[in-house]
Write the structure tokens for this entry.
Amino acid sequence: MRAKLIYFVTAAVLALYFVLAGGRGIALIRIGTPLTVTFGVAVLILPVIGVWFLWQNTRFVTKAHQLSTELEAEGGLPVDELERDQYGRILRDSADEVFARRKAETEAAPGDWRTWFRLAVAYHDARDTPRARKAMQRAIALHEKKPVGV
């Protein structure tokens, strides 16, 4: 729940920034000199890119959540079996051990979105966020029956 709240607050702050930056860009364009029009267009590009990025991330998070809900209903969510230190952080050796099992499971059933979902969680636990994201994207694509690259 805390993660959702942080995400929505961050998204709201970004949306406010996009509106304010967009307003400044339009104001610069309205001045009408070549320099201010150039700066105005440049200022408008940032909110456009930001809105696109925020939209893509929101879609990703929503689809990943849908997968987790479906997997939970099936009883297939990965069980937290990771060892932690005294501060609650995951121990690297424990994460590596679970990751090796999840990777083998995924290699045995590469067309199953469930194994890719669990592999994404293992990557995340091993603190490999880029690979966790790619594995989750593959799980989403497989779930939606979209073609996936090798």
